[in-house]
Write a structure and sequence with these properties.
The protein folds into two domains: 11-120, Sandwich (Jelly Rolls), CATH 2.60.120; 124-192, Jelly Rolls (Sandwich). It is 0% helix and 59% strand. It is built from no helices and 18 strands. The protein has a six-stranded antiparallel beta sheet with strand order 2-3-4-10-5-8, with no helix packed on it. The chain is globular, with a radius of gyration of 16 Å. It comes from Bradyrhizobium guangzhouense. This is HutD family protein.
Length: 194
């Protein structure tokens, strides 16, 4: 097991793919040997962003996306004749980057986290850990993000504090157990194909 604390002051910021806003890049991975890291070389990305006005989502062919509101409430994603309901915080929705989506804000601006991956390159999962308890973690990369206040976790028998706004990146070579000890956390999990 390898752990790295990613501090909020070290996160980078970049424009949305469609230029409609700015996201905070918390962690990402690109194809091995990539010289220029861009959307075409992306394997996966975990990021946060404010949505302050209704508008279209970026078109991202070949990318699978998971999204969760972590601040505010009332977000609805309109896609053709369907709605992806994120009105309640810490609800995860899954969609593909090809879908044309327009946001609707029913109660003002929101803050969201996104976990996205190139289809076929990785399997992803995004869940809120709201109550103390244990869960299995498969081999792969796991990101424990503290969106509002400090949280504490245990991986197998080792305890880790995660300060507010920071993220603990956990690289697992074998299946393990994660326990939320205190606070609230968002867990993003990435399992690379092959």
């Amino acid at each position: 097991m390898k752990t790295t604390l990613l501090k909020s002051e070290d996160y980078t910021r970049a424009p949305w793919k469609n230029g409609g806003g700015i996201f905070t890049d918390i962690a990402d991975a690109h194809r091995p040997g990539t010289v220029v890291k861009n959307w075409d070389s992306l394997l996966w990305r975990f990021a946060s962003t404010p949505i302050v006005a209704p508008g279209p989502f970026s078109h991202m062919p070949g990318i699978d996306r998971l999204q969760m509101v972590i601040g505010g409430r009332g977000l609805v994603l309109k896609a053709g004749g369907q709605e992806l309901d994120e009105r309640e915080p810490f609800t995860t929705v899954r969609f593909t980057g090809e879908i044309e989506i327009v946001t609707e804000l029913e109660a003002g601006p929101v803050e969201v986290v996104n976990l996205m991956a190139r289809r076929g390159a990785a399997e992803i999962e995004l869940v809120a850990l709201k109550e103390p308890g244990e869960r299995a973690l498969p081999v792969g990369t796991h990101l424990v993000y503290a969106p509002s206040g400090d949280c504490g976790i245990r991986v197998n028998s080792e305890e880790f504090p995660v300060p507010a706004g920071c993220t603990l990146e956990i690289e697992l070579a074998e299946a393990s157990r994660l326990t939320l000890v205190s606070g609230l956390a968002v867990l993003g999990s990435i399992q690379l194909a092959g």
